[in-house]
Request: fold
Amino acid sequence: MLLDPGMDLTLRPMRYPEFYERYRAAIRNTWTVEEVDLASDLADLARMTPEERHLINRLVAFFATGDSIVANNLVLNLYQHLNAPEARLYLSRQLFEEAVHVQFYLTLLDTYLPDPDERVKAFAAVEHIPSIRDKAEFCFRWIDSLGGLTRLETREDRRTFLLNLICFAACIEGLFFYGAFAYVYWFRSRGLLSGLATGTNWVFRDESMHMEFAFGVVETVRAEEPELFDDKLAEQVTRMIEEAVAAELAFAADLCGDGLQGMGAEQMRRYLEYVADQRLVRLQMPVRYGTANPFAFMELQDVQELANFFERRVSAYQIAVEGNVTFDESF
Reply:
């Protein structure tokens, strides 16, 4: 089975071809940071209010470390416990994509924060910005949950692995990053920061595929070991998601202060609750909040971005949008 101890090295006969197909789809979705043009964003930043600049500075400070945390969990925990070479192929590709995201956010910081001291503070956000530190500590708690576990020998070992995987798919990539994307697309809905929005579109495609792979692993384990998916696990996952929503709400209060036109902590609360319910539904678990999506501009993310043929470089659609990549992920 997928979580049996050991590390099968043989791709033939292939036991889980769907994981291999996800790997191939990810290859078709290749993009590079050099394709993202941030030049026009500088003029937008110059005319923003102090409150809007505070939001952006906090946002890129979170981005600067978020994907590094995810990459660490891939290397330290997930790779060694999936006993299928085709699944590990996908994780290898995901690790590359996380590195591209880290490079993108590095470029954002270097572009948006010309002051070297401000950049240093942004990179050290987990140490001195409480709202980001709290989210990082939430992540580290689940990284550490597997500790020195090198083999999934017991039912509790497998449950611990599942909770780690679900946390990183549903809470970190599926909630923390989707909350961050909402701020980006709020700016885009006002005609601002088109470079950031373009890069975020490509990051969003990657993150959606990462989540679908992780949920595919969960579904495979559910089919192979249904006894793991009991009321106890559902309660643990629901409590975990509640903690993630609370941490992200504290981050929203930090970013939005008393609120900006069209964006505030109360609106983000409703949006995060909506997203959290979507993740629970995807995990075949009862919804927790029953909240509707308050952001009309996020509904547009279900439609692929259309670009004028003569205004986009060939690479913008030939590389990044090639293949069967769609905006099917529910927000």
About this structure: Residues 302-328 have pLDDT under 50 and may be disordered. The longest helix spans residues 155-189. Residues 38-318 form a domain with the Ribonucleotide Reductase, subunit A fold (CATH 1.10.620.20). The chain has 13 helices and no strands.
